[in-house]
Amino acid sequence: xxxxxxxxGYAAYVWPAYAATLAGxxxxxxxxxxxxxxxxxxxxxxxxxxx
Amino acid sequence: xxxxxxxRRFMEASAVWLPWLAGFAAVFxxxxxxxxxxxxxxxxxxxxxxxxxxxxxxxxxxxxxCYGLMALMSFxxxxxxxxxxxxxxxxxxxxGALLTALGLITGSLWGRPTWGTYWVxxxxxxxxxxxxxxxxxxxxxxxxxxxxxxAARVAAILALVGAVNLPxxxxxxxxxxxxxxxxxxxxxxxxxxxxxxxxxxxFMALGFTLLFFTLWIVRIRTEILExxxxxxxxxxx
Lengths: 51, 237
Hints:
Distance between the termini of chain B: 36 Å
Number of strands of chain B: 2
Structural class of chain A: mainly alpha
Largest interface: A-B, 27 and 33 residues
Shape of chain A: rod-shaped
Largest sheet of chain A: none
Oligomer: heterodimer
Mean pLDDT of chain B: 94
Low-confidence stretches of chain A: none
Number of helices of chain B: 7
Structural class of chain B: mainly alpha
Shape of chain B: globular
Order of helices and strands of chain A: HH
Order of helices and strands of chain B: HHHHHHEEH
Low-confidence stretches of chain B: none
Helix content of chain B: over 70%
Number of helices of chain A: 2
């Protein structure tokens, strides 16, 4: 297992690359989804106001 | 395809595709990660740094595909004056900026152990950095101009002019003497890479592409909902 994390001595390059990609895409997914939900809620509230 | 230019049709159709796109994106990314981290062996010369390729190449490829789509939508918006095309172009920009940034980060983390440097001003790297500035400039233009119709037009012109950079990135390794290697995934006569590396790369590339389309569609839907909300607010005001 520790051999896997050592990445043949290149852990300092391989894991930051994976971490950056995961963090970047993860943040984009969360941001995109939250904006979508908030737009849905905003519209639902406005439509609810109408008679 | 032009049926989808109607926002209502787009909402109906995309609601059907979205779960499939998201599901397949997750499956391909999971399979690509598994093959890339656990099945592919250390490469003979690059050792374990070859695993950075499974992130770098899909990021770069989808960043360029995203720009191509953004420019196409800008063109349609500019010529056919269709607001949904402008919306689609605008929704793609933050995704492209992120993918470009990830391509640069993973590239420099790959460059350090293989070339001995995080960065070099060669034609491939420089033209790819220009892509990031094009995305950021495009986003800044949209935010800087108050009038949406004018903002769309000015941003579209920037997107179209900047599209010149795409072939420059693509062919930079042939036109100039770059530290970045030339095309080495597919050459005339078929793939130039052992299948144990090719499969994780293909799965990751497909996963990134599907994830891009999933996020792009959700962002376009968000903008359509926001527009409806704005219209309703004007009505009731």
